[in-house]
Amino acid sequence: ADDNPSVRAAAVAALGQIEAGSSSEVVAALSRATSDEDETVARTAITALVQSNVEPSVIFSLAPKWLDDKRPSVVAEAAVALAEQGEAALPALTAALDDDKSRYWALLVISELGPAAQGTVGKLAELLPKADSLDKRELLMTLAKIGPDAKPALPQIDAALSDADRGVQYAATFAVGRIGVATDVNRAALSKNSSSDDPCLS
Questions:
Q1: How far apart are CA 5 and CA 182, in angstroms?
Q2: Distance in angstroms (rounded) separating the CA atoms of residues 105 and 170
Q3: Average pLDDT of adjacent 10-residue blocks, the chain of 202 residues
Q4: How far is 113 from 108, CA to CA, in rounded Å?
Q5: What is the CA radius of gyration of the chain?
Q6: In whole angstroms, what is the distance from residue 183 CA to residue 67 CA?
Q7: pTM value?
Q8: Which in 3, 18, 68, 86 has the greatest CB count within 10 A?
Q9: Per residue in 100-120, is it b (16+ CB within 10 Å) or e — as a string?
């Protein structure tokens, strides 16, 4: 490998113009480059893999390592790559939700997919009760983006309406509205919050 990261980045970008499906050597070279010590090279390699029309299974096999990278720009590039795979990325994204370091990015991608991410609702609902306040807000906003198909998570969302954290209450209220299904629990909680002195709840 060249010592100059600019040369390495240019090389992987050029490889990305090759149909990777026809060359295992190209796939191997680009896969290795996604772990390059230079973050520009690593990001370029991730983009190049996607552009080269590599088999989605290659993206999904590498995704856990990318999402675990300590460099935010590399993780962001990985999130974009997964989003471009659409619903096919859901198993990888669901697995990433179990990792504290990759959960935030996985939630961003799932939110982008919206209703197409219905398959993640069970995992999102499972994580919600035990999450910290920041993660609860992100989980609730993600469920809101999924919309009516997130109905199975309503018991957990309804419980969040009475959370001690106001930000969690806001997110839960928004999620209930987006899902659009009334329950005895959320009717009572929303009725109580409607008389709150907090204008975001009333």
A1: 56
A2: 21
A3: 86 82 80 94 92 84 88 91 89 89 89 94 96 95 97 95 93 94 83 69 56
A4: 9
A5: 20
A6: 37
A7: 0.77
A8: 18
A9: eebbbbbbbbbbbbeeebbbb
Q: Which two tokens stand for residue 95?
A: 């697995």
Write down the residue that tokens 């939110």 correspond to.
111
C-alpha to C-alpha distances, 92 to 52, 59, 78, 119, nearest whole angstrom: 20, 9, 12, 12
CB 76: neighbour CB atoms within 10 A? 16
Burial class (CB in 10 A: 0-12, 13-18, 19+), 22: exposed
Q: What is the pLDDT at residue 64? A: 86
What DSSP line would sit under 66-82, residue for residue?
HHT-S-HHHHHHHHHHH
